[in-house]
Amino acid sequence: MGRICFRPLRAPLLRVAVVCFAGVGLIAQQGPIEPGSQTVARPRPAAQGQSSSSTSGQTGAKTPARQVPFKPDSTPAASQDETPLFRSDVRLVRMLATARDSHGALAGHLTRDDFQVADSGVMQEIAIFEPTTERPLSVSILIDCSRSTQREHRTELDAVRTFARSLFQQGNEKDAATLYSFNADVTLEAAWTRSAERIERALNRLQSEGATALYDAIYFAAQDVRARDGRHVIVIVSDGGNTFGKTTYLQALEAAHGADAVIYSVIIVPVVEEPGRNTGGEHALTSLCNSTGGRTFSPGTTREMDSAFSDILRDLRTQYLIGYYPHGVPAARDRFHEVKLSVRAPGYTVTSRSGYFEPAPSSGFRKVTK
Fold first, then answer.
1. Quick check: is 313 in a domain?
2. What whole-number distance in Å separates Cα of residue 46 and Cα of residue 44?
3. What is the pTM of this model?
4. CA geometry: angle at 109 spanning 107 and 115, to 5°?
5. Could you give the C-alpha distances from 132 to 25, 70, 114, 309, 359, in angstroms and in order?
6. How many helices and strands, by DSSP H and E, does the chain display?
7. Is there a single domain that holds both residue 110 and residue 202?
8. b/e burial code for range 127-145 (CB count within 10 A of at least 16 → b)
9. Using one digit for the tens of pLDDT, what is the confidence trace for 9-41?
């Protein structure tokens, strides 16, 4: 190689040299970037009205936000036939689970080693395990006040009153509940509280009228409970028919999964005869409950209504909290990952969420290759 000489540069050439050396210095500071080495973008929020400046001290220069595409890395080192994987080093999948033995009795004596978790068919390591968790409960109660439930309106309200009293009589001192009513509108009747009397006063104001925006109510309740500490539960009292609103079934389902909320439903059957029932709505509500790890009840009498709420409370008092970080999981085309929680020993059944949704592309997650 020839010698490197330093000669005086004319003004135009001097500007080019400064820019080139600045670019080389910036690359040297950053170091080599390995494909797929970072799977989660966690941008630092900037204060409102302020622009981000570069680390080199230039004034007025804005640093563009780093965007992570929701697609496999297109690097020369990546093979065309590699299977895309969903990678998340910080996303914890939480599961509230209820186990029963062969006789249907609640089983609260199981240990971490008794459970196994498969995410999209790939076995996972359990990172968090709490038997009979005592984490506080946040219970969002949704009452259907549409015209279709008018016949059983008083019965359902009396059962909810009993449920609210029982919820606060025992359990964690931080347990709280909120009450929503819904018909064509979704109304917050009582904000988060530990007062059964406040819930009862709100119940006394409710009247049955209008259409049924069930999925809107689920969506709003899920958004509300999402930021709260502890366990998230949504209890719905409805005939299951969604006849109004802007939210779809899938949007309501994703909102519930995003909030790690377990849905329980008490289905009110206003008409006994099959032709007068909204069986499609009942099946949809049952599917929502099963997918989130909850249960569905269809009481026919006042005693059965009270028993349904007692069973819900019993489940909530005997729940396992299980969590894991997805590892080696294939990417899902519809963003939904099927999860199977089971007990190694025969004779046990487990009720838990059936899966979860990958975060949307805008949330900073991406698919990467092996």
1. no
2. 6
3. 0.73
4. 85
5. 56, 38, 14, 19, 29
6. 7, 17
7. no
8. eebebebeeebbbbbbbbb
9. 444 444 444 334 444 344 344 444 333 333 333
